[in-house]
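Standup notes, structure subgroup. Blocker cleared on the cobalt (II) ion input:
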Amino acid sequence: MEDKLNQLKTILNEVADLNAASALLGWDQQTYMPAGSAEGRGNQLATLGQIAHIKFTSDEVGRLLEDLEPQVAQLDPDSDAARLVKVTRREYDKNTKVPTEWVAEFARVTTVGQQVWQEARIENNFARFQPYLEKIIDLRRQYAAIFAPYDHVYDPLLDDFEPGMKTAEVKEIFGKLRPQQVELIKAIADRPQVDDSFLRQTFAEQKQWDFGVEVITKMGYDWQHGRQDRSAHPFTTNFGIDDVRITTKFLPDFVSSAIFSTVHETGHALYEQGVDHALERTPLAGGASLGMHESQSRLWENLVGRSYPFWQHFYPRLQEFFPGQLGNVSLDAFYKGINKVQPSLIRIEADEATYNLHIMLRLELEIALIEGSLQVKDLPQAWNSRMQEYLGVTPTNDKNGVLQDIHWSGGMVGYFSTYALGNLISAQLWERINQDIPDLPDQIRKGEFSALLGWLRNNIHRHGAKYESQELVKRITGSKIDPAPYMRYLTDKFSKVYGF
Ligand code: CO
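Run returned:
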């Protein structure tokens, strides 16, 4: 068996190297590449992607998997070898079952679709994008059919982003969550609004950068195996476990943007830096799923970074950087300001309390589109009425309504729920962490994060992609993904911030 396993690993290592090279080119594209170099870069990425695809989907990989499957069945199912074969099989089937014609058509439609979406958004004209979205929905339905039988037609789509997750599961989770979130927002809306105007003054970019570096260094970001740069949209990427990079966008007139996005991306980066080196250059070297990844970024950003103890430690330092802007703003006022809740039209600007409702709306509409119970032409109307129902605000146009996100134009139908699942998982983990580390708030107050990071490393990071998210959450907390801890967290926090 060792022999075959090594043969498989050799191919997977080469595929991982090719993918890492692509990721590095992608990182460069978004950070330092000259504006006029996009065409050549596109060719390079396409070539590398094609070589990686051919290697990974080769008959040899298929034969090795078939030979290895009965053999690893004798092993501990949690062993690296058994999990590697299982995850590789899943990816292999996904990559080989889909006909090349579908892949080509999907690439063509989404490339044009994304272009048209950008124009339609500027023109505020959904009708222009409508035929492309119809085609994309149709192609995603065809994709689901390739993986029949399924319990629900949306299952294969969800599985692309959250492996193993079923539509029935997300429906149940969000069905419980939605009424409670709506009620919480109503309770907040009945209270006087908090002031956050002091966050919207002029804050020198270099000082923002320096403060962020101090924060994430204390969190445990490993600068020997990472770096930080600027980009138009913040992201984390990696080219192996030992090179995990983050980017930041700085807004001179809104200081909290860069602080929290830097902490967020560092949460993603700590996950990637913490994967066991035994899994390096294999499909297991990375996060378990998008939802699991988002649980790590949100945990650091919100549960830690927007907590009172965190700012008991860091606020005096931030005031030293910005004495003119924050010298006369008390810690309590600052804490309330960074936790302001304001139902709004735009998902990416949403606060902790309202964010999940933006996601649930998208998930419900996506499922209805894929099921065929909602027609694309009726989408803007369905969007607007749900915004009113869940958040109490109605888009004034399609630009700040149905056309705001890039995902659908790029064919990423099935993606959205992972954002909300990440929030839920983060709070569920947080309850467990606080049982295991009872003095965690005191540690955070002192700027000590090593016990917390150690816990995350041991329970989550080191496993890489060995376990699916539901499996991992259950191993750690004893139950599957559950919205109750998140609601407890939100209610406890915002009843104090808003006084109800
Ligand atoms: Co994220």
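Discussed briefly. The longest helix spans residues 2-31.
Next: hand off to the docking folks.
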